Amino acid sequence: xxxxxxxxxxxxxxxxxxxxxxxxxxxxxxxxxxxxxxxxxxxxxxxxxxxxxxxxxxxxxxxxxxxxxxxxxxxxxxxxxxxxxxxxxxxxxxxxxxxxxxxxxxxxxxxxxxxxxxxxxxxxxxxxxxxxxxxxxxxxxxxxxxxxxxxxxxxxxxxxxxxxxxxxxxxxxxxxxxxxxxxxxxxxxxxxxxxxxxxxxxxxxxxxxxxxxxxxxxxxxxxxxxxxxxxxxxxxxxxxxxxxxxxxxxxxxxxxxxxxxxxxxxxxxxxxxxxxxxxxxxxxxxxxxxxxxxxxxxxxxxxxxxxxxxxxxxxxxxxxxxxxxxxxxxxxxxxxxxxxxxxxxxxxxxxxxxxxxxxxxxxxxxxxxxxxxxxxxxxxxxxxxxxxxxxxxxxxxxxxxxxxxxxxxxxxxxx
Length: 415
Prior knowledge:
Elements: H1 2-34, E1 38-40, E2 43-45, H2 59-73, H3 78-88, H4 96-99, H5 106-114, H6 128-135, H7 159-168, H8 178-188, H9 202-216, H10 221-224, H11 229-245, E3 256-263, E4 268-275, H12 277-287, H13 294-312, H14 326-349, H15 351-357, H16 364-380, H17 387-412
Antiparallel strand pairs: 1-2, 3-4
């Protein structure tokens, strides 16, 4: 009984403990980026490898740094403005970004768009980074891994690139039109409910990002123009839930590497994008709290606990990669930033919020048992001859309360 009570107390305190760790981990990520700033010819930026001993910078790292630092210092801070100016050099034909042909890499255009007014939920005024991303779309409103140009052939449409581009353009008023509807329709048709292996990283990465993209447009005119939109989104959500349920704790936070090649007339340039599907899946689940169930909540809690713990120990990196990535820390920061305010709001909403983010509900059967036992003992004071029946009733009451309580603790146990 003492062990049970200890577990009940620990379960009741878990939401507050998890929220506190998530908040501290967010601060730690900001400090990590502040300590990793690179001076780049009058600008400031970041590289993709936060553990590198040599000076290195690029679009991925700089975009991640902007999106993290801006949450603390705001868009008008000197560091953020210097980093944004560095990203804008992609428009300069003489810049290093142009020489590396970054302006033809769809994923780098996506991260330039992500860094545009990152604190604004809607971008109404013209945005050169977002316009450039839209211009790089293929006929039909889809995106490939790279943009045709400089002798590059027209690429094939990529589900991953299209989903990321659509998600990056969700805030841009200039995108919500026929091209948006075409992209959403194409993405929605790419899902199925086939089961995947727990070790699979490629398909869950695509499904998680596609789910994010589709849910970002739920309720919009573009989504309403897609037949069966909600049913198709539900297909992605269910498939991703089944995969996350089978993920062992030891597999959490592995990295999936998406390799692609720009085949031009002069040379073939290899490139890659790295993703952490467990983290992105948890983020997608929390982005739609109205669709949270016990399995999705459990996956989100497991990932948040893992990420918070590793960040606070300064060793957050993918299980299969030994270095700390700026993009992985960006997704971790997004996840933790989404979880912390949701936890506070949930606590204010009372029981409904506690059902979403904490196992407080497991003490209900215990209270029922206490009330029934008290009633039986009170009746004993009037009828001493019924002591045997009373003992049986008390024992049965305790068992009835104990079974669902233990089951609830088992369901809420994150270990």
